[in-house]
Amino acid sequence: MNHPPHVLALSELRRDSLTTAGGKAANLGELIAAGLPVPDGFVVTIQAYRDTLDQAGIDPVGAADLTDLRSTIATVAPPASVSEAILVAYRDLGAGPVAVRSSGTAEDLPGAAFAGQHDTFLNVVGETELLDAVASCWASLWSDRVVEYRRDRGFADDDVAIAVVVQRMIDSEAAGVMFTANPVTGARDQTVIDASPGLGEAVVSGVVTPDHYVVTTKSGRIVESTRGRREVVIRSKSDGGVEHGTEPPSTAPVLSRSRLRELTALGRRIQRHFGAPQDTEWCLAGGSLYLVQSRPITALPDPLPKIDLRRRVAARMLGEMLPMRPYPIDVSGWIDINLTGVGHFAGAMGIRFPCAAELFTEVDGVVTTVTPPAPRPSPLAPVIIARNAWRGESYSEERMLAHPMFTRFRAAVQSGLERDLASLSIEELSAELTDALTLFNEVMRLRTRFMARSVLKVARFGACLVLLGKRRLATMLLTGIETKTSATNRALEDLADLIRTRPQLSIMFAEVPVAEIPSRLADSADGRVFAERFTRFLEEYGHRESIMLMVSQPTWRDDPTIVLGMLKAMAAAPRPVAGGSAVVRAETELFDHPLVRPRFIRNRLARGLAQARDFTQFREDTHYYCTMAMPVVRRILIEYGRRLVSTGAIDQPEDVFHLHLDELTACPITTADADRVRDLVERRAALREQLADKPLLDPRYLRSSRPVSDALVGGTSGSSGQATGTARLVTGAGEFDRLQPGDILVAPYTNPAWTPLFARAAGVVVDTGSAMSHAAIVAREYGIPAVLGAAGATGVIPDGSTITVNGDQATVHLASEPETATVSTVD
């Protein structure tokens, strides 16, 4: 029986060589067979690895100490037959500089790339150095990260082995990666190329921001081109190894148009040969392109259907309303009743809005994804709007507050907040919950009465702007009216003034942790005055939500430390004055138009503007009033939770949010049901934990549809202007006090509860939202630039870096990295 060889030329390999040469080497053999440009080389086979370990008596499977195992393998002397075969092949290759790369049997497969997991050694020079590099590649099969990675993907330790690819070193002028399908959008008709000067390791390891190109695969047309920052350039050293350096700034792209077309054509040939989209590594030297790796693209998303404007706007709205995964009680209770109300609301405009079942995909009661709708007006929408406008009323706050429906709503809310829930039977508690949920729709039905006329007034004013050629001023002009949001912010500023002007309070808020402030207020006269004012504030505004559609999350009344955290930040600086300068400029530009100079036209336009602005007040204020029912619903759910704790079904009242509404109310849950309920809650909690890193909304729905040149991120303009400042990432209410005056607020979402921060911020960048979101309206009031719908901003913008927010172009640029930032390399 012939002994399997220890070394094979790459040209001898094919895709069925996986168990002999590993995934990387087998794919390189396929590239060579297809006539594609691959540097000459050979593979040290898996048999060489096994024979070496057998001779040394090393059994890696089940080793107690991985560090000791790696050290042993990296220093073991191969059998003479192995080392001689390697060195003969090396000499045949010219005995010059080589690249030494691991090639595992579980590597570069469709479901497991093992990208960057095993070790690579570049510019290896000399026979001893080569043998050491091969042994180190063998040892990398047992690094902590590799063992964890493969176990997570179901590969048993005794099912894997490793080969080593040795190739002539290409001292590249430029290098990078190429995906033959768009790995972000899933588009199969686009090729994505990243390029940087020097060796490709800088791009692969992530230590450099490369030039980024998106090219139409068939035509070679450049769809997107973004200049990299070239922070690091990796070059070969004359005596072996590599060095990290920098190069003088250059505005020239790394790749020319003709070179991009050449690379794209190579990508087409590679994909055609393998029959599937490929993730490749390439390098450019002496005017020639070389391929040094190809593997299937893992986790390539399915291409989305065409994302039209309606779906993109809906996605940004949902992203703002659902910044975290809703609990089952949110979806089946508060969100479901909200969507019913929105359906009535949209129906008044002749638009059908989907129900919860059409938006949410669930597994075992846990939401996995949300699909944004593309609501389309009915052909009869004009008739429906006209009919509802004729039947409806013109909005004013006074008219709404005096309406009998609203009076009944306020009375029911107050009664719900005062009800002694502990004294109710389970049947009475269930009836109380049903009544509380329907409270929301009381205001929504009232809202519908005013909707049609409000929209018509906005449409009429919008038509005037179009006729005057001033349509771009619309969102700015609709700002500048008193709303309950601005009243809330003003009340907060009044509390902050109290802190600023009372020395005892100033010291307390500056030095005491937010969680301890409530217990310290009674210790001083100033504290008692503040406590009384604060209680009145919560009575008026305490129903404000932390997250818009989620009753599972505490309101201000439920968790006053949310507000105290805001006040801590606000009191640290003088009271700001709302700028609104952009609104004034927009008004000036409008009324300076030659056609508006006649007094009667000017007066008519001014009336039209005032009526259109009523829509902004209508939208903000009715949202404010609708949410008054939220703390009523939440306290009933918490009472359910307390009762379940007493049965032993759950550990804390908040665990009740893991249950669906019908599971909670269908029948009384007794001690006999405790094990079943506990199992259900624990199973759903575990599933939520597994889904923690999975986005609720496909990010492609949120991503800007247009290139953003060399910007960090781009989105939608929420407020015009430009500002430069320190980026401060604030991911939730508990971090409000991190924002310092003059910082740029960078957040995953905002809602009315966040807007007091805008008085401190020099600018705002939000992952979600649109030009008419709460964040945009308040940013315009304060006259600060805002970029909304900037999908991924919180993951891209470094906290503490200096950034420039351009609200006119809807882009964010990096001015400087944070001082503490470091650049690290990955093997």
Automatic annotation (TrEMBL):
Identify the residues that the record assigns to the Pyruvate phosphate dikinase AMP/ATP-binding domain, covering every copy. 20-301
Q: What InterPro entries does UniProt report for this protein, alphabetically?
A: ATP_grasp_subdomain_1 (IPR013815), PEP-util_enz_mobile_dom (IPR008279), PEP_Utilizing_Enz (IPR051549), Phosphohistidine_dom_sf (IPR036637), PPDK_AMP/ATP-bd (IPR002192)
Every copy of the PEP-utilising enzyme mobile domain together lies at 740-809
Asked if the Swiss-Prot or TrEMBL record annotates the protein with the keyword Kinase, the reply is yes
Q: Sorted alphabetically, which SUPFAM superfamilies does this protein's record hold?
A: Glutathione synthetase ATP-binding domain-like (SSF56059), Phosphohistidine domain (SSF52009)
Q: Which Pfam families match?
A: PEP-utilizers, PPDK_N
Q: Which residues cross the membrane?
A: none
Q: Which UniProt keywords apply?
A: Kinase, Pyruvate, Transferase
UniProt-recorded Gene Ontology molecular function terms:
ATP binding; kinase activity
Question: What is the name listed in the Swiss-Prot or TrEMBL entry for this protein?
Answer: Pyruvate,water dikinase
Could you read off the lineage of the organism from its UniProt record? Bacteria, Bacillati, Actinomycetota, Actinomycetes, Glycomycetales
